[in-house]
Amino acid sequence: MLYRLARPLLFQLDAERAHHDALRFLDAACRFGFRGTIGGAPVHSPRRVMGLEFLNPVGLAAGLDKNGEHIDSLAALGFGFIEVGTVTPRPQPGNPAPRLFRIPEARALVNRMGFNNDGVERLMDNVARARYRGILGINIGKNFDTPIERAADDYLYCLRKVHAAASYVVVNISSPNTANLRQLQQSDQLDRLLGTLTGENRKLAARHGRKVPLAVKIAPDLNAEELRQMAASFVRHRVDAVIATNTTTSREGVEGLENGGETGGLSGAPLKIRSTAVLRELARSLDDRIPIIGVGGIFAAADAREKLVAGASLVQLYSGLIYEGPGLVRRIAADLAAHP
Q: Is the pLDDT of residue 1 over 70?
C-alpha cells in the first residue's frame, strides 16, 4: 500500500535516480528498525537446488544491486536468495546517461547500463560487511574494453576473487549492452569459455575445500537449434545451473510507445512470453540434467508458477519490483508455498 502511494512520486524522477533513491530509502528504513514493515516475515518454503538450500524459490535478479551495497536491506524483503552484480575486474562507468527508461503502459523497462560497477574489489568489501547469511549469487562479466578473445581472462579474474564469498557464481554472457558479449554464446566460443571456467572452478574447490556452483545466464533471443547446442555444451562441461533469461533486443509489445525505441535491453511484462518460451525449450533439451532459474516478466504468483511449470526450479524478480513494489516478493513466495 505504501509503495503504491510512493510510486507516482518516484516515477516523476529520472529512472536511474529513482532507483538509487528507493534503495537509499530502503537502507534507511532498515537502519531505523522498520525492516519488518517493508516486506513482512520471510516465507519459509525450502527448495534444494545446485546442492544449496534456498529459503524459498523467489530470488532477486542481478542488476538491481550491482556493487553489493544493499544486501542486508534487500534481504529484508523476504527473498529466498539474492544475486548481486554484474561485476567486472576493474571499475567502469558504463554507458552515458540517460540509460534507464520506463515504459509504464507496458510495465516495461529499457536499459543500456553497460555493466556500470565499482569493480570486483569494492564488491567483495561490501559483501564482507554484509550480515546476510542466506544464499548469495555473484554475477560476473568482462570489462567493456577487454577484447572478446580475451574475455576468459576477465571471467577467471572475477571467479577467483568471488569464489570464497559466493554461494554460487553466474557467468553473464548475455547482456546486450556490452559490445560483442553475446558472441560468447556461440558454440565454439561457449565451449572454450566453459571449459576454462569449469576447470578453474574445480581447482578452486579442491584448494579451498568448498564447491561453489557455476551458473550461466543466457539471452532470450535464441532459436531452438542454438538452445539445443548450448544445452549440450552445458551438460558436457557440467554447468550447475542456467538462468533464463536476460533482457531482449526485441521491441515486441512496446512498439510506438514512449521510450520503446530506446537502445538497450527490454525487460518487464513484454519479455515474459519470449523468456518462458526459451526456458521451456531449454528444459526440453536439458531433460532435468541441469536446473534452470527462470526470470523475465514476473509480476504475480501466476507468472512465477508459469516459469516453474515450464521447467524452472527457482525464479528471480527485478522489473516487477519497480512496478509492484517490495511486497511482491512475499506475495509470490506465500502463494507458491500455499499452492505448490
A: no
Q: Which CATH class is domain 2-338?
A: alpha beta
Rounded mean pLDDT of 120-145? Answer: 97
Active site residue 175: yes
| Chain-centre distance for alpha carbon 27 | 21
Contact indicator for 74, 60 with CB cutoff of 8 Å: yes
Cell numbers for 299: 509480476
| Per-residue pLDDT tens over the stretch 164-213 | 999 999 999 999 999 899 999 998 999 999 999 999 999 999 999 999 99
The per-residue pLDDT for 2 is 66
* Candidates 175, 233, 267, 275; catalytic one: 175
Q: Supply the mean pLDDT for the chain.
A: 94
CA gap 188, 326 in Å, rounded: 41
Task: Find out whether 110 and 265 touch, Cβ atoms under 8 Å.
Answer: yes
CA angle 66/71/75 to nearest 5° reads: 130
Nearest Cα neighbor of 136 from 126, 150, 147 is 126
Provide the residue ranges of all domains of the chain, joining segments of one domain with +: 2-338
Cβ contacts of 113 within 8 Å, gap of 6 or more: 63, 94, 95, 99, 100, 177, 264
